[in-house]
Amino acid sequence: MLASSEIIRDDFMSGFSRDRNVKIPKKSDKKSNAKPSQYLPTRPAEGRKEVVKKVEHKPRTNRRPDNQRRQSQTHRGNRGRGNTSRDKPQRQRRPTPLDDEVWARVIENDTKTNVIVALGESKMLLGRFAAKNSNSSVGDRIYIGVDGDKRTDVGDILGMAKMELLSNSAASDLPLIIQLFIEEKAAHFIKAFFNIAGPLSLKQHAFELLPGIGKKKALQMVEVRGSSGFTSIEQLNESCTIDAAELLAKRFVAEIGDRNLQPRLTELLLPVTA
Fold it and tell me: CATH no. for residue 141?
C-alpha cells in the first residue's frame, strides 16, 4: 500500500512541476506571433491621383514684325555702350509770343552770359536772345524775325524776360527806350490815340489812362484839341504843357509789368502801321 501511494504522489508532484514550467505567452508575444493578415489590411493604401493640367498654347496675335524685333534687340544690345544721337529724343522748342516779332529794341546786352534782352516793337514784349556779337548797344534796333540770314545780332530765342528780373540799369533804361520809340513813330500815336481819344465811361476819359492826367487836365486837352486835332507831338506838348511821349511810355511800362492792367493801350495802339 505504501508503495502505491508513493507512486501516486510522485506522479502528482511531477505533474505539478510540469505545469509550473509551462510558459504562458504574454500579450505582446501573441501580437508578435500573429499573422500579418490579422492586423494589417490586405490592400495597401492608395493616395490621391495627381491630375496633370493640360497647357493650352494661345496664339500670339500681337506679334511684332521681324524688323521691329531686330530693332529692339539691337537697342537692348547697345545698352551700356553709350547713348547715340538716335536714342536721345530731340527737344522741341516751345512757341512763344515773340515768334511773330520782327524788330526789337535792345534793353540790355550782357557780355558775360552772351544774352541780349530786347523789347519787341509790335507787342511790347520782353525777350531773351542768344547774342551773336557784343556790338549791340542799348537802344539799337535789331532784327529778330524768322529769317536767320538777317539775324546778325541775335540767334535763338531763349525765352521771355520778366520785368522784375531785369537789372537796375535795364529797368531804368526801359522807359527811355520806349519814349524814343514813341517819338520816332509820333505821327502814328497822334493819329491812333491823341486825336481820337474819348470817354471810356461817364466818369473816366481815355486821357486819364496816362500817369498824372486827371479829369480836369483831360477836359483841358479835349478843348485844346478841338475839331481839327493835334498836328504834331511838339504842338501837343506846347498847347497842353505836357510831355506826351513820356506819359505814354510810362503807361506802356505799367502794362508790361502788370498783365492784368485794363484797358491795354499796348494792344489798342500797336503794331505801328506807318
Answer: 2.40.50.140
Name residue, grid cell 526801359.
174
Residues 6+ apart with CB under 8 A from 216: none
107, 174 in Cβ contact below 8 A?
yes
Q: Do 207 and 248 sit in the same domain of this protein?
A: yes
Please, are residues 125 and 147 in contact by the beta-carbon 8 Å criterion?
Answer: no
Q: Which range of residues forms the domain containing residue 102?
A: 97-163
> CB of 152 within 8 A of CB of 161?
no
Report pLDDT digits (tens) over 156-196. Answer: 999 999 999 999 999 999 999 999 999 999 999 999 999 99
Asked if the structure places residue 86 within a domain, the reply is no
> Residue 15 carries which side chain, given as an amino acid letter?
G
pLDDT at 2 over 50: no
Residue 111 in domain: yes
Q: What is the pTM of this model?
A: 0.67
Which CATH number belongs to the domain containing residue 263 in this structure? Answer: 1.10.150.280
Element (DSSP H or E) covering residue 118 = strand 115-120
Q: What does the pLDDT look like over 58-84, one tens digit per residue?
A: 666 555 555 555 565 555 555 555 555
Of 132, 163, 194, the last residue of a domain is 163
Q: What secondary structure does DSSP assign to 33-81, as a single string? A: HS-HHHHS-SS----PPPPPPPPP----SSPPPHHHHHHHHHHHHTTTS
Q: How many angstroms separate the CA atoms of 248 and 237, rounded?
A: 12
Confirm whether 5 is domain-assigned: no
Q: How many CA within 13 A on the CB side of residue 78?
A: 12
Beta carbons within 8 Å of 142's beta carbon, 6+ residues apart: 103, 104, 105, 106, 116, 118, 136, 153, 154
Query: Which cell goes with 8?
Result: 501516486
